[in-house]
Amino acid sequence: MELKEFIKLSVNVLKDKTPYIEQKNLISDIFEKTENILVRLTIIDSLYSTQMNKRLYGLNDLANEIGKIKDLDKEIQNFKDNKPNKISKLLDEKYGIKKSGREFGQARSLISKYIYFATNYNFPIEDRLVKKVLNAVLKYFGYSEIDMDKNDILRELIIFCDNCEIKYSDFDNLLWLLGKIKEGSLASIVDKEKYEKIIEKLELSDIAESKVFDKKMAEKLKNINEIDKIKNLISNDFYEFLEFAKNIKIEK
User: Fold this and answer.
1) Where would I find the H helices in the chain?
2) What gap in Å lies between CA 222 and CA 248, rounded to an integer?
3) Which of 7, 69, 94, 224 is most solvent-facing, going by the fewest CB within 10 Å?
4) What are 26-53's pLDDT values in tens digits?
5) Nearest to 72 by CA among 88, 58, 86
6) Alpha carbon distances (Å) from 234 to 64, 120, 171, 191, 220
7) d(CA 82, CA 120)
8) pLDDT tens column, 200-237
9) Which of 65, 54, 43, 179 is nearest to 113 (CA)?
């Protein structure tokens, strides 16, 4: 299977009334209804668990900085074109403080997601799942890996997607879906009824501890015999995705 085929599978898996799409549509709807930056950031932070609400003054600090950018669309395009821009500074700044008064770190995940929605999905996302699976995907399909310590993941994603003529949002679908599967998390991928049936079929109902549960689920999703047990509960595209995803090894 080629990379673009794998990407297409991920898009098909997520497109039909999955919790992932419902949340994505909800955020998009909020962006259409209000230009209030703080409201937009709060919704993204809540639904995508970027943890900014745990920083004192974090959301307000970030909203204020975004609000200072007069022409956000132009600055985003300059960033994508690797021209002088204000997005780089936004990504490098630190937001919020701890109770001790010490500053918190950057907010690249939340910022990239804000721009993703502000551009109608025409911007890559940098978050924990992307960092976890990106190089494994690149390596498996024969592309050069990137240095995760250089703090330019967004730039590398833009270059890669542009060179390969891949939509940023489609590639993000792949990385997000693969990351969730490798972590044994299906709650955002299937609805509640199917999720409960999958848990029963895979004999995971008696596991109460979350980390143990996720580990067991991840192991089962790498086993074709276990995947076959839930074949009638998932789409053909999802089955094919799971069958292929088990071949991609994620380094811990």
Assistant:
1) 3-14, 19-33, 37-48, 58-67, 72-80, 87-92, 108-118, 128-140, 153-164, 168-182, 192-201, 210-220, 224-229, 236-245
2) 10
3) 224
4) 999 999 999 999 999 999 999 998 999 8
5) 86
6) 44, 28, 22, 10, 15
7) 20
8) 999 999 998 999 999 999 999 999 999 999 999 999 99
9) 43
The answer to whether 42 touches 34, Cβ cutoff 8 Å, is no
Q: What is the largest CA-CA distance in the chain?
A: 55
How far, in Å, CA of 38 to CA of 62, rounded?
8
pTM of the model: 0.94
Tell me how far CA of residue 167 lies from CA of 25, 202, 231, in angstroms. Answer: 18, 34, 29
Tokens of 78: 């300059």
Q: Are 188 and 20 in contact (CB under 8 A)?
A: yes
